[in-house]
Amino acid sequence: MDSQPKTARIAASIVGVIVVSLIGLLAFAGPGGGSEAGALVGNRAPRVAGTTLDGDQFDIDDWRGSWVVVNFFATTCPGCIQEHPELVKLSEWGQDRGDVHIVAVVFNDSAEAVAQFFELRGGDWPIIDEPSVAVDYSVAQIPETFLVSPSGQVVLYVEGEVKSESVIDVIEGRR
User: Fold this and answer.
1) In what order do the strands lie in the sheet with 100-106?
2) Backbone φ, ψ for residue 99 (5° rounding)
3) 164 Cβ contact partners less than 8 Å away, ≥ 6 residues apart
4) How far apart are CA 93 and CA 67, in angstroms?
5) Which end of the chain has fewer CB atoms at under 10 Å, N or C?
6) Are 82 and 158 in contact (CB under 8 A)?
7) Where are the alpha helices (DSSP H) in 30-102?
């Protein structure tokens, strides 16, 4: 009869240790899921390569010497939908400047939905559907955006919606 209260105390202790461990983990993990992705800032950008939705081959190395915005998104992501006009604005600015390009990397979405999204909302940059790229960039929660310098170094990481002005400020050295 004594074994039931003892078992309950042990179970309660185990649950308590688990709860305290989870609270500690959450307290020190930082916001969102992109903390590992943010560690790429200051380092060489992982390779972005694959077949675009248009059937062309894409390799970020072809744009070495230019600024490259690498944006991870999905059509079902509210933040991605919200930020899309900012990317269109940034793309237009980059085309006028001539040395700023955008590449989109699909994150858990269908090629058909993505093609329809871009048809309706604009944007004429390459779109690749290569899951390994998200792994290489440690993408956990979209939207996530990386700015790669002409030398191939990640100089800006944005977790959440990107603003064109923030990227432009970095490119123009105002930040």
Assistant:
1) 127-128, 100-106, 67-73, 144-148, 154-159
2) -130, 25
3) 86, 87, 89, 90, 93
4) 12
5) N
6) no
7) 35-38, 78-97
Distance CA(10)–CA(25), nearest Å, equals 23
Q: Give the number of other CB atoms < 10 A from CB of residue 175.
A: 11
Residue 51 tokens, joined: 């077949």
Find out whether 134 and 40 touch, Cβ atoms under 8 Å. Answer: no
CA-to-CA distance for 46 and 103, rounded, in angstroms? 13
Chain segment 95-111, per-residue pLDDT in tens: 999 999 999 999 999 99
**The residue count for the chain:** 175
**CA atoms of 57 and 63, how far apart (whole Å):** 13
Q: Side chain identity at 113, as an amino acid letter?
A: A
pLDDT exceeds cutoff 90 at 10: no
The candidate with the shortest Cα–Cα distance to 80, out of 143, 4, 144, is 143
The residue with tokens 């979405």 is 109
pTM of the model: 0.78
From CA 106, how far away is CA 93, in angstroms rounded?
Answer: 23
User: Coil, strand or helix: which one is 23?
Assistant: helix
Q: How many CB atoms lie within 10 A of CB 4?
A: 8
